[in-house]
Write a structure and sequence with these properties.
With 324 residues, the chain is α/β, with parallel strands linked by helices. It has 13 helices and nine strands.
């Protein structure tokens, strides 16, 4: 590894001078300062922020990077924290709110050895930017990604969504509308599942408009108001998450409609809200994904502790759809 002695030798100065440049000491010749900085940049030298961490080789801290809070991401973070602490690691949470610079703060902390590893729940920068930091320590993502540098614990949304659609079909639903979240990699897989499902059963794939970028209870209420205005109404709506399904269900109930008599509603994630409102939903095992992320990180750090869980979606039937 590059150290101060090597930089000093190449620059023809003392280690004290190099240390002054690194610490932005004012009393260094400007020409010599620039020369030292060029050598530091060329050698990709990163001064360790903690002598104690340098001695031990680890900080025992893992960063968790997320853009926003959701019910599901909260479940993931809680499970990740519990699992990490079990193996002697602490967790540092970074909430970027979509700010690329805030995301880079966490990545730079990995680079400067202030973190041993990083978990990326929702990214803001492009993947090639994030991948460039993988050489400094393990980075694992929750998002769908195929990369030689960054392992992912994502689950195939095609399978999960198809499970829900097939269930609706067995219950007699034929006019199904879709409410999707973001236009990331998960949504195209859900759209592909619906198109394949419609083709399989010779249903009209475009009978109803798709809703996109719907995340919240308020978005669900908006979809409910759309449904009430229609003369040709869907008999079931598959939602991107339980929040949207909850908003849809409660707004319809306020207006005198009932589930499943007037419409079937399918959520996704199986959060506490789905349990509270008796929503049929798809169980998405975020806690097991979080544990898998810990296992992968520890394995990359040379501390193999467990094989990863084999993950599967599960249909949870409740009262927002027709009973068996």
């Amino acid at each position: 590894m590059t150290n101060i002695q090597e930089i000093a030798r190449l620059a023809g100065v003392s280690t004290t001078t190099v240390s002054r440049v690194i610490n932005q000491h004012p009393y260094v010749n400007e020409t010599k300062r620039k020369e030292i900085l060029k050598i530091i940049e060329r050698l990709d030298y990163v001064p360790n922020s903690s002598a104690k961490s340098l001695k031990k080789g680890m900080t025992r801290i893992i960063g968790v990077l997320t853009g926003i809070y959701t019910n599901l991401s909260t479940s993931f973070i809680q499970a990740f924290n519990a699992s990490a602490q079990k193996y002697g690691f602490n967790v540092m949470l970074f909430i970027t709110n979509g700010d690329r610079q805030q995301e880079l703060v966490a990545l730079e902390m990995l680079r400067s050895k202030q973190l041993d590893a990083l978990v990326c729940l929702f990214r803001t920068n492009e993947w090639d930017v994030i991948e460039s930091y993988a050489k400094y320590g393990p980075i694992v993502t929750w998002q769908r990604l195929v990369s030689d540098m960054i392992p992912s614990v994502f689950m195939d949304q095609y399978q999960g969504y198809m499970l829900g659609l097939e269930y609706l079909y067995t219950k007699g639903y034929r006019r199904i509308a879709n409410v999707f979240s973001s236009k990331g990699l998960n949504t195209p897989e859900r759209i592909r599942a619906f198109n394949d499902f419609a083709f399989k059963y010779q249903l009209k794939a475009d009978e109803f408009p798709d809703f996109h970028d719907k995340f919240t209870i308020f978005d669900g209420e908006e979809v409910a108001r759309w449904w009430m205005k229609q003369t040709n109404r869907p008999d079931a709506i598959a939602c991107s998450n339980d929040n949207v399904a909850a908003g849809l269900l409660t707004e319809l109930r306020r207006s005198g409609f009932s589930t499943p008599d007037d419409i079937g509603i399918l959520g996704f994630d199986n959060t506490d809200l789905a349990h509270l409102l008796d929503l049929t939903t798809i169980h998405y095992p975020a806690n097991k994904q979080a544990e898998n992320a810990v296992y992968i990180i520890l394995d990359m750090l040379g501390q193999h502790v467990s094989e990863v869980h084999v993950l599967e979606f599960e249909l949870i039937e409740r009262k927002s759809t027709k009973s068996s």
